[in-house]
Amino acid sequence: MKAFVLNELYKYPELQSTTFPTLGDDEVYIKINASSINHRDLWIVKGMYPGIILNTILGSDACGVSGENTFVINPGLFWGDNPHCQSSAFQVLGMPSPGTFAEHIAINQKYLYACPAHLTEIEAAAIPLAGITAYRALFKRALVKKEDKVLISGIGGGVALFAMQFAIAAGCEVIVTSSSDYKIAEAIDLGAHAGYLYTNPDWYKELIHDFGGVDVIIDGACGQGFNNLVKTCNPGARISFYGGSAGKIDGLNPQTIFWKQITIAGSTMGSDQDFAEMIDFISEHQIKPVIDSIFPFDQITEGFKRMESSLQFGKIVFQH
Predict the structure, then answer these.
(1) What per-residue confidence (pLDDT) applies to 257?
(2) pLDDT at 183
(3) Are 272 and 79 in contact (CB under 8 A)?
(4) What is the model's pLDDT at position 61?
(5) What b/e sequence results for 114-127 when a residue is b if at least 16 CB atoms lie within 10 Å of its CB, and e otherwise?
(6) Could you state, in chain order, the average pLDDT of each consecutive group of 10 residues for the chain (320 residues)?
(7) Is the pTM of this model over 0.85?
């Protein structure tokens, strides 16, 4: 079969013929009809991810068919029995296990979920990794509730957009940040109440003036900008972060955090139960993922280039 294989670091995966997968216990073949790229794939290519194994098929997201049924694949494998955190065996599909940038995959049936009826295969393929990350960060770690004021940083990426859509569907007032006026305008068109350029050093002052502060923050960057996020917190606020693309957090004022009773929680992916709940939530609220662009399967490299440009607003999907 054909698949995109990472043969060398710092080079995009290459389309090549590879061995057809063999079935393990409780596994079935899925013919993949659509997949999508995540920053994880790009970070692996750049050598910025632990435990990199060469000659591996990349890709974590997919929608495909087995028999007459269409499924979305949960890419979080071996979560374990503890709902509060993943097991030591936990891994994400697409390294070390062969991923979804292929014509077929062998996958345990317990990781298959019926494609929501209101979605196309292209739309469904955009959900898995970003969707589950956003769902857990928002609902399980930040404990968001109706009418909360929710601040989502770095709008435009897959996780941030899902967090925004989920929060809006849950009845929250959503505020976003970005370095792009265009992305802020797009977010407002999708239902966000307001947006601020985090490149403006006083953006958090403007937010506090306009909204008084926020109850929940979903962040994927951390770094120096994290301090300004804390400044926007109302008493009892919850901050949930799922990434650290801007680096370490320095200079946090502990007095502000304990006096305001602020909770700061890390979040990674989600449990099998979280994934099932997310799919149900998407179906119940008829949520459609934001798609930035669609490329043919043999042009996956163009998708990597699009993501590397940081110009995308929404998910980059591949039609197999």
Answers:
(1) 96
(2) 97
(3) yes
(4) 98
(5) ebbeebbbbbbbbb
(6) 97 97 96 98 95 96 97 98 97 97 98 98 98 98 98 97 98 98 98 98 98 98 95 98 92 94 98 98 98 98 96 97
(7) yes
What pLDDT is recorded for position 221? 94
In whole angstroms, give the CA distance from residue 70 to residue 68: 7
Tokens of 192: 């966000």
Domains of the chain are 2-127+289-319 (3.90.180.10), 132-266 (3.40.50.720)
**Cα–chain center distance at 130:** 2
Q: Please say whether the dihedral angle defined by the alpha carbons of residues 98, 242, 218 and 221, taken in this order, is positive or negative.
A: negative
Q: How far apart are CA 15 and CA 5, in angstroms?
A: 6
Of 141, 135, 132, 130, the closest CA to residue 240 belongs to 141
Q: What is the DSSP string of the chain?
A: -EEEEE-STTS--EEEE-PPPPP-TTEEEEEEEEEE--HHHHHHHTT-STT--SSEE---EEEEEETTEEEEEP-EE---S-TTS--TT-EETTBSS--SSBSEEEEEGGGEEEPPTTS-HHHHHTSHHHHHHHHIIIIIIS---TT-EEEESSBTBHHHHHHHHHHHHTT-EEEEEES-HHHHHHHHHTT-SEEEETTSTTHHHHHHHHHS-EEEEEES--STTHHHHHHTEEEEEEEEE---TT-------HHHHHHTT-EEEE--S--HHHHHHHHHHHHHTT--PPEEEEEEGGGHHHHHHHHHHT---SEEEEE-
Structure-token pair, residue 202: 């006083």
The predicted pLDDT at position 75 comes to: 98
- Return the pLDDT at 145: 97
Q: Which residue has the tokens 């939530």?
A: 281
Return the pLDDT at 235.
98
Residue 24, CA distances (Å) to 21, 31, 75, 113, 271 in order: 9, 16, 17, 19, 22
Measured CA distances, 175 to 41, 65, 182, 315 (Å): 28, 38, 15, 20
